[in-house]
């Protein structure tokens, strides 16, 4: 069990020094759900999925969750408000992306999280990949402001940046810039492919997470992928613990240039699908 109590002359562990508010409980959290108890639980949950976290990474991810739940009292960031469910539905769910990202945890690369909302999956992935430079994109100002505050509070602002814009616009300023583009609960797979295509470097990957994917949505994405320069490179299925559902993680590699000029105008991918 992690402890931040004094230990004679020994210095406090690093995470106690950088997280002075770790005794704070978000509204609705019981003492049982404090950082002290959620961290070992998270460590245990993710290890069942072959994901290894350090003590510091675990603490940072739980602290992010605390900040999200606290901010959720004033702006709508998530419907998942039970901390123990959120460990699975936000943090584990985000970390499952790593199972399909074809890069080592200490590699330096650029990641863009499209439609990051409260920072999922971008912040847990930014914590896991300690040398990655991560851009978190969202078009809603209030969410961007909240996520910027989280990043600052977590001490990650040197590597994790918030881009408050639509991804179609970001594609003009950050063309072919990213090794990995992620998206969770953002849009249909075909729309995600269209958004990601101009943003990715050659051989970069789009990694998207879905609950149960409908056959129509999957077939349409597979049909248009070659037009957008992609081929499917990985597909993984997971059952979440506690009967909290299942996940499909789909990975598409950008193998060649798009055959159509991208990005199309704002809103076209969604409202005039290919
Ligand atoms: C349902 S939320 C999902 C948030 C987060 N990825 C998660 O899984 O918790 C979708 C988010 O995508 C953002 N979004 C939708 N379309 C976008 C676009 N074209 N560019 C940037 N952000 C977008 C919305 O503002 C919203 O925050």
From TrEMBL:
EC nos: 2.1.1.-
Compartmental location: Cytoplasm
Segments traversing the membrane: none
Matches recorded under InterPro entries: rRNA_ssu_MeTfrase_G, SAM-dependent_MTases_sf
Any Pfam family hit: GidB
Binding-site list for S-adenosyl-L-methionine: 115, 120, 167-168, 184
Main location: cytoplasm
Keyword Lyase listed: no
Superkingdom of source: Bacteria
GO cellular component: cytosol
Keywords of the record: Cytoplasm, Methyltransferase, rRNA processing, S-adenosyl-L-methionine, Transferase
Gene3D superfamilies: Vaccinia Virus protein VP39
GO molecular function, one term: rRNA (guanine-N7-)-methyltransferase activity
NCBIfam families attached to this UniProt entry: rsmG_gidB
Role of this protein: Specifically methylates the N7 position of a guanine in 16S rRNA.
Family of the protein in this entry: Belongs to the methyltransferase superfamily. RNA methyltransferase RsmG family.
Record protein name field: Ribosomal RNA small subunit methyltransferase G
Organism field: Olsenella porci
Lineage: Bacteria, Bacillati, Actinomycetota, Coriobacteriia, Coriobacteriales
């Amino acid at each position: 069990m992690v402890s931040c109590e004094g230990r004679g002359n020994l210095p406090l562990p690093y995470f106690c020094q950088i997280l002075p508010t770790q005794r704070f409980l978000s509204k609705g959290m019981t003492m049982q759900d404090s950082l002290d108890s959620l961290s070992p639980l998270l460590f245990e949950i993710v290890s069942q999925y072959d994901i290894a976290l350090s003590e510091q990474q675990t603490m940072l991810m739980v602290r992010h969750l605390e900040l999200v739940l606290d901010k959720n009292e004033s702006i709508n960031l998530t419907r998942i408000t039970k901390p123990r469910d959120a460990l699975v539905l936000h943090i584990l769910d985000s970390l499952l992306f790593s199972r399909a990202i074809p890069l080592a945890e200490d590699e330096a690369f650029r990641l863009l999280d499209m439609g990051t909302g409260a920072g999922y999956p971008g912040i847990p992935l930014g914590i896991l990949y300690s040398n990655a430079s991560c851009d978190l994109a969202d078009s809603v100002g209030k969410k961007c402001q909240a996520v910027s505050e989280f990043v600052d509070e977590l001490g990650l602002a040197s590597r994790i940046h918030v881009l408050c814009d639509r991804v179609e616009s970001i594609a003009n300023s950050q063309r072919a810039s990213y090794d990995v583009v992620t998206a969770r609960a953002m849009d249909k797979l075909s729309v995600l492919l269209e958004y990601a295509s101009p943003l990715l470097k050659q051989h970069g990957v789009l990694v998207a997470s879905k609950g149960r994917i409908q056959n129509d949505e999957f077939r349409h994405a597979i049909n248009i992928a070659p037009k957008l320069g992609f081929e499917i490179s990985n597909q993984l299925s997971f059952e979440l613990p506690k009967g909290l559902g299942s996940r499909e993680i789909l990975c598409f590699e950008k193998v060649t240039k798009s055959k159509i000029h991208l990005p199309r105008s704002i809103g076209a991918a969604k409202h005039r699908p290919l």
